[in-house]
Structures are given as C-alpha cells and as structure tokens.
Amino acid sequence: MSDITVVIDKKYIPLDKSWIIRMGILDIVNGYDDIQKFLATQENLGDDLAALRIASERWKFDKDINVGESGTLYRLLKYVSWKQELHKNFILEGTLRHRKINDDQAVLRLSQSELLTYDNGTSQWASAAVLLGDPERLYRPPYKLDLTYQAVEHWHMQRDKGLAWQPRYDDTILGQAKTYLKLLKGERPDFILEQAEDFCFAYVFGYITAEEGEKRWPALRGHESDRIIEIQDTLTAAKEGREIASKDHRVVQAIAMWGKINKRQLNILYPKSVNKSWPQFWDFLKNS
Questions:
Q1: Strand partners, 64
Q2: Is 46 helix (H, G, I), strand (E, B) or coil?
Q3: Do residues 266 and 234 touch, judged by C-beta distance below 8 A?
Q4: For residues 200 and 253, is the Cβ–Cβ distance under 8 A?
Q5: What is the pLDDT of residues 21-54, one digit of tens each?
Q6: Rounded distance, CA 148 to CA 151, Å?
C-alpha cells in the first residue's frame, strides 16, 4: 500500500496540531467552546491535542492546567495567564519538565522581533502576542509565526460570518510521508524543507546537514531534545545496530522510516513517543 493516494486521503495523516492549538487559544481567549466540541469528536488525537482538549475544558474553572509535553501549549497559555493576570499554575509532563523556557513576564512588553530572540529563537512567544491581539505583521516572518497570522485572520473571518473555524491536516507530515513513499520505491525525489519540523527527516535522508539545520533553525537546540545532536547520535546508533533510546517524536519517526527503507531491524525503546504528533505513524509504516 505504497500508493501516495492512500496517504492523501488522510487516513494516516494527523490534524495539524500547530493550527488546532492556535484555534484553541483563540477560542479560550474569546470565550468559545468550539475547540472542546471538535476535539471530543476526533479519533487518534496526538498527545499535544489531547492536552489541549483537557486544558480548554478546565481553563475557566481550574487554577492548575496540565499542558502535557507541549512547549507550544505551555508558552501560549502562560502568556495568556500573564496577560490576563489569571495566575495559572502549569503542570508539565515528560521532556517539557527539563526544557529551559523563559519564565519572565517582561516578554509582555516586547515587540514580536524582540520575542523572536527568546528560547533559542522559537516563534511561540511572538505567536502568543499575536493571538492576544498584537496587530503587528512582520515582513517574511518565521514559518510558525506566519501560520499564526493566518490562524488569526481565518478565525476572525469565520466568526464575522457566524461560523466556527475550520481544521487543517498536517501538511508537514504529509510532505514527509509522500517523500518517504517515493524513497521506498527507490526514487530520489526533491524534498523542500519548509520549517524546522522537517529537519530530522531531511537529515537522515541526506537532504540537509546538521550545520545547515542549525544555521537555519537555532531553535532545534531547544525542542524535546537538542535535535541537532539527537538525530546525529540516533542515526549513528541505527547504523551500528544499537538500540534507539531517543524519546523525541520527530527523531523516532525519521529513524524508523530510515530503518524501513534501509531494511534495518531497529530496537526502538520509546515507540509511543510518536503519539505526540503522529499517532497513526506505526500503522502508516506497517502498511507502506
């Protein structure tokens, strides 16, 4: 079942969690419950969206908010809590507990350009400002900040029509899946890296070097792992037949696809890590 049309029918492609989280934040801030209703109808929710569902249900009533392992959800809701003086306490899970994340409310006074210098250059603080009403629009913004601009425009356009927002599926994962299926056939397709989430996949298949990745996306150093180091070490482990000990979902997905194409039996210690972004991943890999 390596036909690309099977992938495009969305059976194996998850929701775009970045888009859905932004819709959720806008709903929370503006007093809508559409995010709760939508997520309650979805099967195969990734861990980050499952955390969003719980957080959105409890936001009005609870001081303690569990954001799971989602750095995006944590930063965006933390900014909301600061801005609205809600004094929420955030419960962190997994690798998020060990990540270095800004804890200074001074970010509320900063411009988007200044916010882009925080936490290894992540765009999440700038996105938080936009979701809370900052009208500035930077020229040639980072990929995820541009997504935030689109999200705000879409959300308000739908609300002005008396409609709820529309979901999106994950085009980044779709692009990787399509490229993987061609590689599986022995082809060498072009692969355009759109954003930092393409790095691990692109690295293991030789579309980018570690040095190029770090130059383009310094924030790769501050995800679930230091992805610059983690993907190099993991690929070396795979080639040497050692166990795969990474807990980073992007690393595990990339190395598992590499293993199948290269006909390597890999001992992956944390296969459930992929649930963070691609809960259908192992079914996709099994049936490709």
A1: 89
A2: coil
A3: no
A4: yes
A5: 999 999 999 999 999 999 999 988 999 999 999 9
A6: 5
